[in-house]
Design brief:
The protein is an all-alpha fold and about 110 residues long. It is built from six helices and no strands. The protein has one domain.
């Protein structure tokens, strides 16, 4: 397994979820959409923008909800820089593939019962 030497916790998590793991390769979604969804760039970009907005906060008080407010404000501001997914017009194909996968899983569970 490719995670064996890299990260023990990630490997254990992958092994635990093995039966329930759903991959884009199984769904057979268009390559234009899977290229966007296989990347973590959108998540990393959001976190980078969030850090730039709340990174200057130096008083995080536990007794108030101020941390929640700073986080919410930072996410709102960071969301302004989020770009749409490349090939977003292919999302209906992803939804259809998920529906097929879910209905297939339900029918196999009914047969096993």
């Amino acid at each position: 397994m490719f995670l064996k030497d890299k990260n023990q916790q990630a490997r254990e998590s992958l092994e635990e979820a093995h039966g329930n793991l759903l991959t884009l390769l199984e769904l057979d979604v268009p390559n234009t959409l899977s290229r966007s969804l296989l990347s973590t760039n959108c998540i990393e970009n959001l976190f980078k923008n969030l850090r730039s907005h709340i990174g200057r906060v130096c008083r995080w008080r536990k007794e108030t909800e101020q941390a929640d407010r700073w986080l919410a404000w930072g996410l709102i501001v960071a969301s302004e820089g989020i770009c749409k997914i490349s090939a977003y017009w292919e999302i209906p194909a992803l939804i259809a593939a998920l529906d097929r996968k879910m209905s297939g899983d339900e029918s196999s569970r009914k047969q096993a019962a």
